[in-house]
Write a structure and sequence with these properties.
Belongs to the bacterial ribosomal protein bL35 family. One of its GO terms (cellular component) is cytosolic large ribosomal subunit. It holds the Pfam family Ribosomal_L35p. One of its GO terms (molecular function) is structural constituent of ribosome. InterPro entries: Ribosomal_bL35 (IPR001706), Ribosomal_bL35-like (IPR021137), Ribosomal_bL35_sf (IPR037229). The protein is α+β, with helices and mostly antiparallel strands and 64 residues long. The protein has one domain: Factor Xa Inhibitor. Helix content is 36%, strand content 16%. It has helices at residues 8-13, 38-43, 52-62, and strands spanning 14-16, 22-25, 47-49. The chain has a 3-stranded antiparallel β-sheet. Strand 1 and strand 2 form a beta hairpin.
């Protein structure tokens, strides 16, 4: 049997907390920021927990 290799791109984008939750950065804060209001860009800061609908797929990519 070959070894399972976790998806390295997913590993760079998400982080597993001590309690087992998977957190990610919010999307939309990379470019075209001049056109977005400060309220919108402030809302995009920080991390958020991966949604329940995507959790199974992300865990599979991480090998968990």
């Amino acid at each position: 049997m070959p070894k399972f290799k976790p998806h390295t791109g997913t590993g760079k984008r998400v982080k597993v907390t001590g309690s087992g939750k998977i957190v990610r950065q919010k999307a939309g804060k990379r470019h075209l920021l001049e056109g977005k209001s400060s309220h919108v860009t402030r809302r995009m800061t920080g991390t958020t927990v991966v949604d329940e609908s995507n959790l199974k797929q992300v865990k599979k990519l991480l090998g968990r």
